[in-house]
Amino acid sequence: MKYYALLHAVCGLAEGYSDTTVRWFNDLDKALEAKGKLVAILMDGDNAESCTTSTDGTESVITFDIDECEQEIVRIIELKPTWPENKSICEYL
């Protein structure tokens, strides 16, 4: 079974900070739908300058301030767990 991690990273290189959150999905279509909604919300604000999306639609980079390198990255990563079906074994992204 494959899982899909939807990563949302807030980056501000000039200030030296970042904040990353992850949402998990069992279905790529649901992950893409959630990514699309998140990108739409981010682009709806007045501060977004540009959005660059990969050709396969799994990654978008929204730039808020080019001079300050303020960006938010929304990316879907496909994962295939390497652990057995035993719930007592953990694996980290």
Describe this structure in words.
The chain is of the alpha+beta class and 93 residues long. Helix content is 18%, strand content 43%. The chain has 1 helix and 5 strands; from the N terminus they run E-E-H-E-E-E. It has one helix at 28-44, and strands at residues 3-12, 17-25, 50-53, 59-65, 70-79. The longest helix is centred in the middle third of the chain and has 17 residues, at 28-44. 12% of the residues are buried.
Quick recap of the structure?
The chain is of the alpha+beta class and 93 residues long.
Strand content: 35-45%
Number of strands: 5
Proportion of residues in helical segments: 10-25%
Enumerate the spans where pLDDT stays under 50 for 5 or more consecutive residues: none
- With strands numbered from the N-terminus, the spatial order across the biggest sheet is 2-1-5-4-3
What is the average per-residue confidence, as pLDDT, rounded to a whole number?
83
Order of helices and strands: EEHEEE
Helix count equals 1
Quaternary structure state of the chains depicted = single chain
Supply Rg: 15 Å
Structural class designation: alpha+beta
- Dominant shape: elongated
In this structure, how is the largest beta sheet organized? 5 strands, antiparallel
How far do the termini sit from each other?
16 Å
